[in-house]
Every structure is written in structure tokens, then in C-alpha cells.
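Thought: the user wants the 3D structure for the chain below. I'll pass the sequence to the structure tool as-is, report back what it returns, then summarize two notable features.
Action: structure_tool
Action Input:
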Amino acid sequence: MNRKAIALSIPFFVLALIGANNALDTTGTISVTGNVVDGSGNPVRGATVTAFNDDLAASISVVSAVDGSFRFDALPGADYRYRSRLMGLEDSHIAAGSTTPLAFVMPPAKDLDAQRPANNLLDLLKFEDEADALNFRMMCTYCHQVGTLGWRSPEEPVDWEVMITRMDGFRGLYKHTQDSLVDRLVSVYGRDAEKSWPAFVPPEPPSGDSLKVEISEWAMSKEDAATVHDLEVGIDGLIYAVDMSNDALLTLDPKTGERKTYSWPGGKTFGEPVAPIKGPHSIEMAANGDMWVTLALSGEMSKFDIRTKEFTTVSAHPTRARGGYPHTLRLDKQGVVWWTDAARSVFSLQPDTLVVKEYVLPSADQVRGEGARGESRGITPYGIDIAPDGMVWYTKLNGQRVGRIDPTAADGSPDQIVEWKPPVHGPRRLHVAPNGIVWVPGWASGDFASFDPKTEEWKVYDMPKGPNSLPYALNVHPDTGDIWICGTGTDSMLRFDPKTETFTEYLMPTRVTYTREIEFDEDGNVWTCNSNGPTRHIENHYGSLIKIALK
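Observation:
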């Protein structure tokens, strides 16, 4: 083998996780009905009504209809407490053990500022130049929402200047922004700055298809100490996720709520208050159900055998002991593993021989499209997907590129690797539809685009809530063809119908829901995970797995 990598096949280590011994008895279910009214007794449309199972650290949410009514058709038998929530109104709570029908009364909110979602809070931060605003969104929203209550409270005794210096890890902020950013942030988000904020006008309540949804959420890993970065739906009925902060693979049985944790050999001990060593980042399933994972911090690729529960780990570089920063991965129809290395280029791995190959990407002047010259510091190969025809598509987040690799072309031929400059800014996790159309989210520009490789034509769509929506990732539903998009800055998930070019927004029940990936199960349900980092910013201080089922 032309590589300096050592394959490891080591028995797994299992550690206790929240809910691991609290599997739910699903032999019985209960139906719960009720109504939501405002302080004047008028029906409330679009309120998110959540049933919390504290023993299982899980919840199920539905949305009230036009007449204020709601219904949980089949809650697994347990004792629940309930909450109704809608921006502009005060949260209403009903204690566990209450009899149905439930009656929520929601008077006007006393503190509207506490209900501002991150996109509205980020709207308050003004820049004189749009390029500066794009630069800030590119470099300062990578891991968390901006402006939320937890974000406005840096860990003591770290002050704002130290925090910002530490967080500019990509060294991508413009120099003049670095010089002025502390004062700018303190003026908008510092102590007592809320007094000068403009009044918050809550958005219109959800309507139409936005009301026809059930959202299930499971808290995962450790409180205040997790990064549930990516997830995958397993062929064994389990949901698999990677906890980047704890060097751990997590599993959830959505039928019982049982969770398990598997720690990477050579990684940190689960839950220890130290920095991670492996940094599992992206996870994808092989045809036989095994899970492949990028280990971003250690520069490795790893496979988890779902039957033996063993890890096999190799270098993510063909000739070196480690790769740079293995990022997102996909598997093609032949089982070849493809991934982007955010510090370098695109790689592939033959699963039977574990041989790694690198694809050297074009430079800035080797690109198609108008105004193609010039790349930001660090090109950052990022998203990746395999098209139905076998072509490998990728993005350069900071390089502002979308590229295509032809695995059948001769190495070094002009048509082997081709790049375009997209009309969106900050292309992140793209996907290719069954018809070959490439869909690309614009992280910093708050939009997304379709690209037809046959005509090389782009079409751009604005996100409904503007540039601070921060669409991190999107995916194409295999049954309907709808484009599902992360509303990473808006605590929401959006469904876009490419035929009618219309949106449906589904609000997430937990404040500070930062999503990075979308998957689908065999029933057509949508899965994502809340991975805002640090976890303490999240309303309940937990990362989570989330299932969205349309009704």
C-alpha cells in the first residue's frame, strides 16, 4: 500500500449515556387533546405545543390549528408535562399528571426581547459595507448562533476581546474588522445594550402546511459538554451520531429512547473536561450498514462495524501519518469513500484495501464563470456529494467554488476536475438531485441556488427570513423531490418545492437550534441534530437528535 497509515481494529468501549437504562415501554400509548387561547380567550393558531418526558429526556411537539386545537395521537405511555410557545405570547405550562383536554392560556409576552431568534439578533449588528457583513458571517457563525443570551455571556473571566481573538481561528476576518469588532459587538450586545434595541415585532404565526407536523427531540450526550455534529439513519433502526467534543459515536433507538455511547480508541475518555483528540465530524453509512466517520482533529478516517462494534481507523492521507482536517464524506455506488479535507483537497479511499488517493483541486484562475479570479485566504474544501451519474461534487467554502470530479477520467486531464464560481456566498453542504441538478446553500448570503451542469445555468432563491438565516446544509427528499434546508439562524427547518418555488417553514421547539445536516428515514421522515457549540447556549443545555414527521 502506498501509504503510511496503521489500521486499527479494536474492541469498542461503551459508556453510560443519558437515558441508556430508561428504555420506554411502548406497549401502550395515550391520546392527548386540548386548545390554546390568548389572554382575551381568542384561539391561537401556530403555537408549538410540546409534551416533555423528563425521565427519558425526550419530547414530542405538535402545532395548534386555526381554531387553537391540537392533538397528540399516540404519545408513548408515560407521565408528561406540557408547554405551549409562540413568539409574541408568554409561554404557558401545564404540570405532569394533568387530565385532558389541556387548556393553555397565553397572554402577551412580558419580555419580547427574550424571544428574539438569532437571525433578528444578528440583524441588529450593522456594517457599513456588505463585504464586511459577509466576512463576519463567514468567520463568526461557524459553530453557533450570534446574539443569543448565552452568546452574550462569555465564560468568566474571559472578556470580549480575548474571546474574539480566540474565536478568529481561521484568521479570515478583515484587519479593519478585527480592529473595530469588539467595540461594535459591545455596543450592540453588551451590558444594558438591549435598552437601545428597536422594538421586536414578532412574525406572523405559522399557517397552512406549517401546522401539519410532529417534531420529536431526544437530548443526547452530556449537559453543557457535547457537540452532536452530524447524524445518519442506520439500517438497523438506530440513529447514529458523532459527538465531536467527546470523541464518541452515539446511538439512539427512537422506538424505545435507549441511547448508547462508543468511544474512539485513542480518543479522550468520555465526559472528561479536556479537549477532544479525534474530533469525529461527519458520518455516512456503507451499503452493509457500517458507519464511516471523518476524524477531523486527528486527520483520520474511521469505520464502525455495527455488528462487532469495532472501529477501524486509518490515516486520511495517502503518504502521511495524518490528513489535515477531514470534513464531510459520502460513499459512491461502488462503496468508495469520498471526503473533503478542509485544510487541503478531496480524497477517496478504497474500503477493501484502505488505499487513499488525493485529488489536487484547481487554483483560482482555473475556474469557469464570470468574475472567477480571487479566493479568500484558505479555500476550505467543504461539502461533498455523489451525483446519480457517479460524478463527485464538492464546494470550497472560503474559496467560493463549486467543483466536479470525474472519477473515470485520466488523472490530470482537463475534464477530470472542473470548478465554477457560484452566485451564492459561502457554499457549504450541497446535494445533487436525482435529475442531476446541483443544489447549493449560500451560508453568508442567506440564499441557495440550483445549477444545471448541462447548461451551466444558475438560479438563486432568497431565504424567506433574509441573509441571517444562515442555511448551513440542504438535502433533496428522495420521494417528493422537495429541497429541505437548514434554517440554522432561525431555529427552523424549511421545505422548498422546486416545482412551485414555495417555502414551508417548520419552527423547532427549542430555542437556539443550530442544524448542520439533514437525513431521511425509510418512512420519509426528516432527521437533523442540534449541534450549537458551546452547548450551554442552547435553551436546555443539551445537543439533540430531531425527527420531523409531516402529518
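Final Answer: Structure generated. The first helix runs from residue 118 to 123. Helices lie at 118-123, 130-140, 160-167, 175-189.
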